[in-house]
Design brief:
The structure is a homodimer. With about 325 residues, chain A is an alpha/beta fold. Chain A has 13 helices and twelve strands. In chain A, strand 1 (about 60-65), helix 5 (about 70-85) and strand 2 form a beta-alpha-beta unit. The longest helix of chain A has 16 residues, at about 70-85. Chain A is elongated and about 85 Å long. At the A-B interface, helix 4, helix 5, strand 2, helix 6 and helix 10 of A face helix 4, helix 5, strand 2, helix 6 and helix 10 of B. The structure holds a DNA duplex (16 and 16 nucleotides). Chains A, B: It holds the Pfam family LacI. Chains A, B: This is NTD biosynthesis operon regulator NtdR.
DNA sequence: GTGAAAGCGCTAACAA
DNA sequence: TTGTTAGCGCTTTCAC
């Protein structure tokens, strides 16, 4: 294996000089620089990145956790983070937690072991007190999830407001029996959505009904199941906030083939405004959120912390959301 | 930062002994082992992974390239690779090439720089002659793509046969004007599909028509455009193989809202058998392929090469595919 | 069973 | 402008 010493020997210079050329340091004479570069090219030498990382104690790699990569929202989030990382010459290790607490902690071990310089959590499986101790090993930030007291940057969008808007829209369309779906109750972001939902009901003097609230709902198949549940209720909602376009798509499909008219019999509103909204019939009303931008912003914030420009401290950034009305409401 | 020396000092042993404990080597007395373990726990010591990787010249990380992560097929592929990597305690760095040749080569630089132990290419942007030189730095294998001569393991499914089956199905449904979509002409896998398409036409004495072949087609939006193209033809096909469920979904949607009856006026067949097939109206006939398994197999094959159990040599593995008939044909 | 010592490839003080 | 030297944290001979 070719090393820096080999180059130094070939060029009759010290390896320091070679290292300087490699790192674009000043104070190398033009002739030497050129000669060294020439030799490097000729014998196809490549610096060993791991040795560099070891020496500098810096990996130029960050870790990103998501529950599962095959969910369009998270795929987009990864894309945003990756795009920004690419242009900053960082690598991203994507960790799928599969909604598993242990795997999330394993991701944080990477930080402890110095295998990554920082971490972006795209979801939160563990109680914050399990996460916090890892802060001493490097910066961690929360993206697309919220915590009421964690002393780190938090980047998301206004879940409360987005949900409130959505529910008010349903109310304005004449509905007063409105259901609500969420994924996990442990998520503070999801709780904020629920608060938005309840606030809208209260503001318009509509009744709450526990039967109209559905948890553990993530994907198309869950959408299928939700329809069965709704259909089995004695008193069913006439409109439902699904929390996610996949769920909306599954729900609409089952409702339609069971003879429901969407939106007349059941209005459905999604979340995320993915392309799937435009291909199902009827098309899905949804909340548009800037996911790519969310990922990019998260990465840039992490880099700030990494470079020490900004110390790690609580800061809540909320990106704007936008209601897109289509046929399903 | 705590190091192995610190532990050694605290325990009055050499760092060799600590290292032995850390690596579960034999020949450490029970008492010492227990004492060392105890101290390690107490002061929360973690070995520095980069130092280890440096010393062992092994990163336990592999790189995986895909064109773009937010395409359901590739998201699933990543999931398969990641699942298997997780259980083998490897990390996966996912590289999105965005269909860009330079980025694909950057990924291979990781191998050259020893930042990853091996590479799985989930697509192929560059000419093989650009890729081949990197083989001397570590194992590379091809997954979901094909090459006629590359001397590496190739894992995919039988594109020819799958497409042939699909076209024959359309013919049996009474169609004789059948269109074909592909993504990129550089892809040998796509060429095999085209061969399957043409063979089926020939076997049933159906005419070829260049106007019915559409390239550069990847996602839902492309499906939208394809419909416009078909609709503008004087002599349009009555059935179309889209090569991918996203395209099929987009195409079906536009056709339907333009008053076409799918499948009567235009039969559409997808590929990949994603959940989206079940939520659009009409539901989409598709080719089911074991994507997760594809990713898992690819990882396991790479590990085999890495561990030297198997030397890197040409080997073509083709997983089975299955035609799933639904309403769109 | 255990430890001393070398060294993986590189960068960065410091000296010249 | 250049080189000498030390050392990052760890594993692995080799000798005891």
């Amino acid at each position: 294996m070719t090393t820096i010493d080999e180059i130094a020997r070939l060029c009759n210079v010290s390896k320091t000089t070679v290292s300087r050329v490699l790192n674009n340091h000043p104070y190398v004479s033009k002739e030497k620089r050129e000669m060294i570069l020439k030799v490097i090219n000729e014998i196809d030498y490549t610096p060993n990145s791991i040795a560099r990382q070891f020496r500098k104690n810096e990996t130029r790699t960050i870790a990103l956790s998501v529950p599962s990569i095959d969910h369009p929202f998270f795929a987009q989030l990864i894309k945003g983070v990756s795009l920004q990382a690419l242009s900053n010459k960082y690598k991203v290790v994507v960790f799928q937690t599969f909604y598993n607490q242990t795997i999330e902690l394993e991701l944080l071990e990477l930080l402890k072991h110095k295998e990554v310089d920082g971490v972006i959590l795209g979801a939160l499986e563990n109680n914050w007190c399990k996460i916090e101790p890892f802060l001493k090993y490097g910066p961690i930030l929360l993206c697309n999830e919220y915590h009421h007291s964690a002393n780190i940057p938090i980047i998301g969008y206004n879940e409360f407001e987005a949900t409130y808007k959505a529910i008010v829209h349903l109310i304005e369309m004449g509905h007063n029996k409105i259901g609500f779906c969420y994924d996990t109750p442990y998520s503070e972001a999801q709780c904020q959505r629920k608060d938005g939902y309840l606030k809208a009901l209260d503001d318009y003097n509509l009744p709450h009904n526990k039967d109209w609230i559905f948890g553990g709902v993530f994907n198309i198949e869950d959408g299928f199941h939700i329809f069965e549940q709704i259909n089995n209720l004695k008193d069913s909602p006439t409109a439902i906030f699904t929390g996610n376009d996949q769920v909306a798509a599954g729900l609409i499909k089952r409702a339609t083939i069971s003879g429901f008219n969407v939106p007349k019999d059941l209005a459905v509103i999604g979340f995320d405004n993915q392309l799937i909204c435009q291909v199902v019939t009827p098309t899905i009303t949804s909340i548009d959120i800037p996911i790519i931008e969310l990922g990019q912003k998260a990465f840039l914030k992490l880099i700030d912390c990494l470079l020490g420009n900004v110390s790690l401290r609580r800061e809540v950034i909320r990106l704007p959301t936008n209601l897109i009305v289509r046929e399903s409401t």
